[in-house]
């Protein structure tokens, strides 16, 4: 097979023509970095290597773009990169991000746990669910949350004075507050203790 033309396209891609016909689009930088130019002969195996190189480069660029906006866990980043790249290219891209220190599950988990517990006032159980949902290992999540030692009733009190300060004092309003606290991972006994005190009645 012979490469008969290489035409610049959008999004840093180039159209590759083989034997006079359009074949595929590849990353422009990957093509330039290769030894192939117009007129070069290329075998099926060599074309596959060039495609793999292009895919890996695009995957790494997407990974960098995603983490430039916010931190990601390894699992989360690999899944997002994998939406626009093959699984192997996504895995290699995330491996490279880890090597560069741009992806670190422990650091990510500590920052997220601190936000969930100390800023958003999630329960320990609710924070654990969020961490594991992001791909953080359960054992690591438990270790970090044990260090933070959140007091559930104290956090519910804070939520009652901030997030739920304007909640209606009627039965419907109280039920909504209880449901919201349950979704955040709080248990019945802790909710009841605070709600009963807040509304001066035993609600549950």
What's the SSE blueprint?
Layout: E1 3-8, E2 13-18, E3 21-27, H1 28-33, H2 44-69, H3 74-81, H4 87-99, H5 105-119, H6 124-133, H7 138-148, H8 152-161, H9 171-183, H10 188-198
Antiparallel strand pairs: 1-2, 2-3
Helix pairs in contact: 2-3, 2-4, 3-4, 5-6, 5-7, 6-7, 8-10
What is the CATH topology of the largest domain?
Arc Repressor Mutant, subunit A
CATH homologous superfamily label of the largest domain: Winged helix-like DNA-binding domain superfamily/Winged helix DNA-binding domain
Question: What is the strand tally?
Answer: 3
Profile the largest sheet: 3 strands, antiparallel
CATH-derived architecture of the largest domain: Orthogonal Bundle
Helix-residue proportion? 55-70%
The end-to-end distance, rounded to whole angstroms, is: 76 Å
Mean pLDDT: 90
Domain count, please report it: 3
Overall body shape: elongated
Q: Give the H and E element order.
A: EEEHHHHHHHHHH
Number of helices: 10
Q: What fraction of the residues are assigned to beta strands by DSSP? A: 5-15%
Strand order of the largest sheet: 1-2-3
Short structural description:
This protein has 204 residues and is mainly alpha-helical. It has three domains: 3-99, Orthogonal Bundle (Arc Repressor Mutant, subunit A); 104-150; 152-204, no CATH class. It has helices spanning 28-33, 44-69, 74-81, 87-99, 105-119, 124-133, 138-148, 152-161, 171-183, 188-198; strands spanning 3-8, 13-18, 21-27.
Description:
By secondary structure, the protein is mostly helical. The chain has 3 domains: 3-99, Winged helix-like DNA-binding domain superfamily/Winged helix DNA-binding domain (Arc Repressor Mutant, subunit A, Orthogonal Bundle); 104-150; 152-204, no CATH class. It has 10 helices and 3 strands, in the order βββαααααααααα. It has helices at residues 28-33, 44-69, 74-81, 87-99, 105-119, 124-133, 138-148, 152-161, 171-183, 188-198, and strands at 3-8, 13-18, 21-27. Strands 1-2-3 form a 3-stranded antiparallel beta sheet. A hairpin with a 4-residue loop joins strand 1 and strand 2. Helix 5 runs antiparallel to helix 6 (124-133). The radius of gyration is 26 Å and the shape is elongated. The mean pLDDT is 90.
